[in-house]
Please model this.
Amino acid sequence: MIDKLPPIYGTTDSGTETIIGKWLDGSKDAAIKFLMYSISINRPETPYNTEAMAKDTIEKYIEDNF
Model:
């Protein structure tokens, strides 16, 4: 059985798919902005929702899960 990947912080399953898809297609800026948008909507209490933190989050997620 294949385990389901957890969503990236602040996103849903489909949001995670969108972010990873954009990242792998070379649209890293779009992926970062989408993650920042998702966090601002789903986790508005999150401090320091910046491009640098979003980039680090995506890179760490890929490193941990792939």
Q: What stands out?
A: The chain has a mean pLDDT of 94.
